[in-house]
Each structure stands twice: as structure tokens, then as C-alpha cells.
Amino acid sequence: MSSLTSGIGGGWFGGGEKAKTEVATVSEDQLLAAAKTDAVTTGSIGLDVAHGCPRFQVWSREGYVTIYEPGKVGDGLAVMHRGEITKTARECQMEPGRITVKYGFSGRVLLGPKGRTGRVTLPLNVFVTDARREKVVTDSVKVDVDVAVEKPIGYFSFVRTITFTVPEGARPAEFEVYVGFDRGTPGAG
Q1: In 63-117, where do the E strands start and end?
Q2: Rounded distance, CA 55 to CA 75, Å?
Q3: Arithmetic mean of pLDDT, 135-160
Q4: In sequence order, what are the residues at sequence separation of 6 or more whose Cβ sits closer than 8 angstroms to the Cβ of residue 136?
Q5: Does residue 111 contact residue 152 with C-beta atoms inside 8 Å?
Q6: How many CB atoms lie within 10 A of CB 161?
Q7: pLDDT by residue (tens digit) across 29-49?
Q8: What is the C-alpha separation between 132 and 40, in angstroms, rounded?
Q9: pTM
């Protein structure tokens, strides 16, 4: 238990930079398998290969969220659980004036010192930005993960499509798709 209570910067919650890697195929099974390994997974749908396809990445610091007991945000001993996005992938279908991005992400939920056995539901936001970084499309999703004291790490994967229009004169590569945990979740810190 000491590794759980050593603070967010170390122990089970880690403090280093998490590897965000794009994987070749956007399927829940492959993303789930990738989330359960620490290996770097790459494939043919990388940033250099998918010409013109909008990038898909985790929004700045929203790749993780820590949920605390009510009224104890920031207290390392009051951590209920922590969600982390560890892998991302995307595929594109481009038509004149319109793009459909099949995106996927996977990750894990870690049980904290005050966590309980059961289902953890964490909301996330997915959105598309244009060249001015203004949101043009948004989507809210939820991931459900089962955790238990005897199995303190649960894994998730999620795949969905998002479609948006490309105005005349704009290039598809000017758009970006982001995912991030919803920091408005009660107890989030």
C-alpha cells in the first residue's frame, strides 16, 4: 500500500511522461491489448503516412484525471481512482468538403487508497479544432471500467467516428481531433 500513498508523482500513479502512440488499426480489441502492455505500438497509420488526415491526440494535460473523496481534492491519501489514456489511433475517410475520422483510444483506471471495488465511469470529451484552434465539433463519451481491491488496475478501449465539414479553401490537415478527461467530474483534480 505504500506505493499507492506515495503521492501522485510516484508509486502506481507514476510521475513520468506517458507515451502517447498511434497504432495501426482502430479496433477496441487491439487498443485494449495495447493498453495492457508498455510496448510502443506503431503501424501504417502514423503522422507521416496518413497524408492530410487530421492528427488525433490527447488534449494538453487532460490525458489523466484523479478522482478524490468529496472535499479532499489534492490529498494523496484521499485518492479514489485515477484514469489514464495511454494509446490513440485514427483512420480517415475523406470526401469533398467532408471528413470522417474513426478514432480510438485506450487506457487504464488505477484504484487509489480510498477506492472501492466496483464499476468506475469516467466522462471524456472529444472535439475537432480548426486552424485557429476553435472547436468545430464536440462529442462526449464515457468509459466504464471494473476495478477491485484484488485487481486494482482495469483497462478500457473506445472506438467511434466523428464527421465534420471542411470549408472551401481549408485543408483537412489543418484540423485536429483531441480527447481528454472531463475535469468537471465531481472530485476531479
Answers
A1: 64-68, 79-95, 98-111
A2: 35
A3: 95
A4: 128, 129, 130, 164, 175
A5: yes
A6: 14
A7: 776 676 666 543 333 333 334
A8: 31
A9: 0.74
- By three-state DSSP, how is residue 113 classified? coil
How many C-beta atoms surround the C-beta of residue 28 within 10 A?
14
Angle at 178 between CA 157 and CA 104, to 5 degrees: 25
Residue 3: closest CA among 112, 117, 125: 112
18 near 64, Cβ under 8 Å? yes
| Residue where the block lists cell 468509459 | 143
Q: 88, 104 in Cβ contact below 8 A?
A: yes
Contacts (Cβ under 8 Å, ≥6 apart) of 100: 92, 93, 161, 162, 163
* Angle (CA) 18 155 100, round 5°: 75
Q: Is the dihedral of CA 49, 136, 163, 171 positive or negative?
A: negative
